[in-house]
Design brief:
Elements (H helix, E strand, L loop, with lengths): L1 H12 L1 H10 L5 H11 L3 H13 L14 H12 L19 E5 L2 E4 H8 L1 E2 L6 E2 L1 E4 L5 E3 H6 L4 E3 L6 E3 L2 E3 L2 E3 L8 E3 L6 E6 L6 E3 H4 L2 E3 L6 E3 L2 E2 L4 E2 L1 H4 L7 E2 L7 E2 L6 H13 L8 H11 L4 H8 L2 H11 L7 H5 L5 H12 L8 H15 L4 H23 L6 H23 L9 H8 L4 H5 L1 H9 L22 H13 L5 H13 L3 H5 L6 E4 L2 E4 L6 E2 L4 H12 L2 E3 L4 E3 L15 H10 L4 H15 L2 H8 L3 H11 L4 H11 L12
Antiparallel strand pairs: 1-2, 3-4, 5-6, 7-8, 9-10, 11-12, 12-13, 14-15, 16-17, 18-19, 20-21, 21-22, 23-24
Protein name: Site-specific recombinase XerD
């Protein structure tokens, strides 16, 4: 009864409004109008003011409500529209023209939230970006919200973890950070893990933080985008979760990325961060770095690029590179302090075409040799070491490479030889002697030492004697007497069968292991294989390991072809897609997998690359003539002859015993894969 009296009293107070709406839409009932007024304002005084403003300005009901002085007018119109009133029109934002909720007035007109932020935006006194001010610094300059969140003055000690972080929520115990803010323990609707989740506005299901930050390849359309729905096995992007364009908002910069907010998408954030880093004081960006920026912006995984750029060492190194003038060259980068980040940036510049390609191992070896020579205190020793390192080792290495990159082992051997030679020269200098006056007694005393350099410096002594840098001295040569590890044919065939038929191993590891176990290939030769080494003729797959290609048996041919198809003309590194033809691409763009990384991966599967290669080479040398073996496997003819002599020597009985254990009667290699 009381509620009915209140309705009639309110109807009397807003009588002119009822008359106005009855003229606009005669079928509209008084109860609908009264309910809308109640939703717009709770107090009678506020309800009367809303009714009075609408009666005085009836154009507010026909799309002009952006000029209303009372926010309750907008709430009243929204309630009528929701009730199905067709003559009342919801207002558009007068600046952007979009149907969005209007907020505070600006210059007499109420704007949407996005236009309001743009209207009140000011250049941030710290980052310079045009954003709404959140605070002001000590000088009175505006500070945007992002800069204020990074300011330690806005941080407080989290009552949960104790770290000084930005306050995300206030609890009864005190402030908590973003990681510790209270959230319900729910089961994620995508990965099915139980943890702290938030309800996704796109699907209405719980979503954990890990899934919210995940970047996927959509299982339906194949596009690379952030995860919005689906399952872990069948993830979906925004377009496939809800194809309605009106449901999603767009990136505020590119206007392309579908997302739930108008914040910058990951790709636009990468572009903004790189532009800030690469722009110098004169407002320009070097052409080489602009190509790098374009390559990083167009990566398949912009989230990985953002994570990489957020590392302090990466940002500092990129900014230092941006300051290089007049042009960014290899020589300019060599002058900077070397580190892994700089080497990675150099590889990206080479992959994008900003820098010409070069052999990085050889380029690093040359300054190391110069530094080692300069460390000697006498000109005579510097001259001898220069001739030994530059004219003997480095010249021979360049002749062997034939425009191919140097391997890790080749460079390591030269470093060891030069280091050992320098150690001998330093030892002679401490004794008041020199290489030209060294006697056999001095050399024998040095060779009798317990250091590794003493035993390995014999090569330098023989070279110095042959080139008349030292008197006639005799230094014993260390001859290779055979592999040091055991040769186990049973294990070799067991490992080969496992790699052939077990699909749980990565295909690249299976192919690399089989090339070692079947064709006795070195790790450096495997890692530098390209698609140009792979050929097809008469339905067969051939692989050029030496001067004569070998026909790959099944199922190895299928695995190699799948590996070549998986890498393709371009393969993704951690950041960019670089044109390359490596069968075993590395983590850095334009470079193959390193020998060290390949060794770690094979050993993780229980393989011993050195012992497996020795066993395979021992068996092949006993069955194939040395000349054919050298051409087929790409090894030196002298090495093939040594292995052939070894296989017919003292280990013949051992090999026969191994073969007779479980493989009696099996003489053909194809039977080993039954």
């Amino acid at each position: 009864m009381t509620k009915r009296i209140d309705r009639s009293l309110l109807a009397q107070q807003i009588g002119p409004l009822l008359v106005l709406l009855a003229e606009l839409e005669p079928a509209l009932g008084a109860d609908t109008i009264v309910a809308a007024v109640r939703k717009a304002a709770a107090m009678p005084a506020g309800q009367q003011r809303i009714a009075q403003e609408i009666v005085d300005r009836p154009e507010l009901l026909t799309g002009q409500a952006a000029a209303a002085t009372l926010p309750g007018v907008l709430r009243f119109i929204d309630a009528l529209v929701r009730a199905g009133v067709t003559t009342v029109v919801a207002p558009l934002c007068p600046r952007c023209g979009k149907q969005r909720p209007l907020g505070r007035p600006f210059d007499g007109l109420r704007l949407c939230a996005g236009c309001t932020r743009k209207a009140v935006a000011m250049p941030c006194g710290r980052c310079g970006t045009l954003r709404p001010p959140a605070r002001r610094n000590d000088n009175g300059q505006p500070i945007c919200q992002a800069c204020w969140w990074r300011d330690p003055r806005s941080w407080k000690a989290c009552t949960s973890c104790g770290d000084e972080r930005r306050v995300a929520a206030m609890t009864e115990a005190g402030p908590v950070c973003t990681r510790c803010r209270p959230r319900p323990e729910l089961t994620c609707g995508i990965c099915a893990r139980t943890g702290r989740c938030t309800i996704s506005r796109a699907t209405g299901q719980p979503m954990c933080d890990r899934c919210r930050e995940r970047w996927i390849v959509c299982s339906r359309c194949g596009a690379g985008a952030s995860l919005k729905g689906g399952t872990r096995d069948e993830p979906l992007c925004a377009r496939c979760v809800n194809p309605d364009p009106a449901f999603w908002k767009r990136c505020g910069v590119c206007g392309i990325t579908w997302q739930l907010t108008t914040a910058r998408c990951a790709r636009c954030s990468v572009d903004r961060n790189l532009s800030r880093i690469f722009t110098t004081a004169d407002g320009t960006i070097a052409p080489e770095l602009d190509r790098l920026r374009q390559a990083l912006v167009n990566v398949d995984r912009p989230d990985h690029a953002l994570d990489w750029l957020n590392k302090p060492g990466v940002r500092d190194t990129l900014h230092t590179v941006a300051l290089v003038r007049p042009a960014i060259t290899h020589e300019a980068l060599d002058a900077m302090p070397p580190n892994g980040t700089l080497a990675h940036i150099r590889s990206i510049l080479i992959a994008t075409g900003a820098l010409p390609p070069r052999d990085e191992r050889l380029a690093a070896l040359e300054p190391w040799i110069r530094k080692t020579i300069a460390a000697r205190t006498t000109p005579e020793h510097q001259r001898v070491l220069h001739a030994y390192a530059i004219w003997h080792h480095l010249r021979r290495l360049r002749g062997r490479l034939d425009d191919q990159p140097a391997s890790h082992q080749q460079v390591t051997n030269i470093r060891h030889q030069v280091t050992d030679a320098a150690a001998l020269l330093d030892w002679l200098h401490t004794r008041g002697s020199a290489l030209a006056t060294c006697t056999q007694a001095d050399l024998d005393q040095w060779l009798a030492g317990t250091s590794g350099s003493a035993a390995r410096s014999a090569n330098f002594v023989r070279w110095a004697t042959a080139h008349h840098h030292a008197p006639r001295l005799t230094a014993p040569a260390t001859r290779w007497t055979g592999p040091a590890g055991p040769l186990d044919q049973d294990r070799r065939w067991a490992d080969a069968r496992r790699l052939m038929h077990d699909d749980t191993y990565p295909i690249a590891d299976r192919v690399a292991g089989l090339l070692i176990l079947l064709y006795a290939q070195k790790l450096n030769a495997i890692s530098t294989l390209t698609t140009q080494h792979l050929r097809h003729a008469e339905g067969q797959t051939l692989l050029a390991l030496g001067s004569r290609p070998v026909v790959l048996p099944a199922p190895l041919d299928r695995l190699v072809n799948e590996l070549a198809d998986a890498t393709g003309p371009t393969q993704g590194s951690g950041l960019i897609n670089a044109p390359s033809s490596w069968l075993f691409p590395g983590r850095w763009p334009g470079r193959p997998l390193t020998e060290e990384a390949l060794t770690r991966r094979l050993r993780a599967h229980g393989l011993q690359p050195r012992q497996g290669r020795n066993t395979a080479l021992f068996m092949l040398a006993g069955e194939v003539p040395a000349a054919i073996l050298a051409r087929m496997l790409g090894i030196h003819i002298k090495a093939a002859i040594q292995w052939q002599q070894l296989s017919n020597g003292d280990w013949t009985t051992y090999a026969a015993e191994i073969v007779q254990r479980k493989n009696r009667g099996r003489t053909k290699e194809s039977q080993q894969f039954e």
